[in-house]
Amino acid sequence: MQVDIQSFKERGCVTVSGLFTNDEVARYRQHFMDMRRSGTYPGDFGGVDMQSNDPLKRYPRLIHMHRWDQVSLDWMIDPRLGAVFRQLLGKEPLAVQTMLYFKPAGARGQALHQDQYYLRVQPGTCIAAWMALDDCHEENGCLQVVPGSHDLPVLCPVDADTSESFTDVTVPLSANMQPEPVIMKAGDVFFFNGQLIHGSFPNRSPSRFRRALIGHYIDADAEQVAKYYHPVLRFDGTTVDLDVAKGGGQCGVWVDEDGTEVVEMSGQLA
Ligand SMILES: O=C(O)CCC(=O)C(=O)O
């Protein structure tokens, strides 16, 4: 399978179309809908409330399912994903997280952010595989990305608009940055660098879900990742010992330099 490595280098992201078949995607949809409707799980921080007016309380995201669900584990270390990572990274990938976003009609999105803010991988950064389980477009709240932003350091977070986002922090954009929608077919997988600014807007469709199965990865040269992402797995399913990355450190803020906005590392992460 040919992956557009140049696009990944220049834009910080690339879509691999049809990496998983329609039949596989239909099975994943059924599997995770059954799972969500039949209980609560570790990682359901806010709980599940089927009577709530908030669609995200009826269908909260699932987190780290691979730790207790074989289907999720098999997907996270699927050889097709491994083959793409080896092309993109030129190194062996390591797997650290799964998530399932249901994003039903009317659900809020997730404010623009950088995954590396959370994973704190050292040295290097993380990389995500975001697989569409439904066709994704602007109406149902597809992913939005700022191509080229992967060259930025981790930016200092600011408050997000929680009427549009279920998370409460975001990153400020410079005046010439504009998020772009990532239009995808179910079964496509979007790979993106951990510093790429991305997120999503609300699902404004009257009835359609926008489900996505997401994995976060690091490369074999990484020595540290935040505690939440341990244990770290190789693609053969065995675990590898990495150090726990500490919190804090510097973050970037936009400053004006002779009429141009540039990032200055003058902020401090909590
Ligand atoms: O799927 C979305 O709406 C956002 C997902 C995301 O930002 C992430 O996986 O880091």
Give a quick set of tags describing it.
18% helix, alpha+beta, binds 2-oxoglutaric acid, four-stranded antiparallel sheet, 270 residues, globular
Describe this structure in words.
By secondary structure, the chain is α+β, with helices and mostly antiparallel strands. It has one domain: q2cbj1_9rhob like domain (Jelly Rolls). Helix content is 18%, strand content 29%. A hairpin with a 5-residue loop joins strand 14 (232-233) and strand 15 (239-240). The longest helix is centred in the first third of the chain and has 16 residues, at 22-37. 2-oxoglutaric acid is lined by residues 101, 109-110, 115, 128, 143, 198-200, 212, 214.
How is the topology of this model organized?
Layout: H1 5-11, E1 13-16, H2 22-37, H3 55-58, E2 62-63, H4 70-76, H5 79-89, E3 93-101, E4 110-113, H6 116-119, E5 127-132, E6 143-146, E7 158-159, E8 169-170, E9 180-181, E10 189-193, E11 197-200, E12 212-219, E13 224-226, E14 232-233, E15 239-240, E16 243-245, E17 250-257, E18 260-268
Parallel strand pairs: 13-16
Antiparallel strand pairs: 1-10, 2-3, 3-12, 4-11, 5-10, 5-12, 6-9, 6-11, 7-8, 14-15, 17-18
2-oxoglutaric acid binds next to strand 11 and strand 12.
